[in-house]
Amino acid sequence: MKPEQSIEGQPSIAKAALFGLCPQCGSKTLFAGLGQFADTCANCHLDFSSYNVGDGPAALLTMGIGTLIIILALVVDSVFRPPFWVHVLIWVPITAALTVITLRMAKAALLSAEHRNRAHEAGKSDLL
Q1: Where are the transmembrane segments (predicted)?
Q2: For 16-43, what is each residue's pLDDT tens digit?
Q3: Could you give the number of structural domains in the chain?
Q4: Mean pLDDT lowest for which of 15-19, 90-94, 119-123?
Q5: The 3-state secondary structure of the chain, one letter per residue
Q6: Is the pLDDT of residue 3 over 80?
């Protein structure tokens, strides 16, 4: 078995996350917008709306990226001493781009993991 594909021929979670691939057929149809999932896969008609990815990745990624940006900004400030407007020109676009890119990959990875593990909301039948 190749590491980039599962037994069923589905893309790996990492590959699906990096390229926005449908976790079932591997088509590049997971996203309809910058960070918004499509309703269904245009190729295999898998219903993406049935998966509950939630906003869990957003908080973690925001804190992680914020920490990284603050550390980098402090290093740049201590080494080069640029004016404030230079910091704004550098760090605002980098922060926005990193947040969108990593959030998109994290959401795709969670959806792919849910699909691969056949995860679903717990119900009364699951309690017994």
Answers
A1: 58-76, 88-106
A2: 999 999 999 999 999 998 888 999 999 9
A3: 1
A4: 119-123
A5: CCCCECCCCCECHHHHHHHCCCCCCCCCCCECCCCCECCECCCCCCEHHHCCCCCHHHHHHHHHHHHHHHHHHHHHHHHHCCCHHHHHHHHHHHHHHHHHHHHHHHHHHHHHHHHHCCCCCCCHHHHC
A6: no
Pair of tokens at residue 69: 């940006």
Q: Which residues contact 7 (CB under 8 A, 6 or more apart)?
A: 1
Residue 98 clears pLDDT 90, i.e. is over it: yes
Q: Is 7 within the bounds of a domain?
A: no
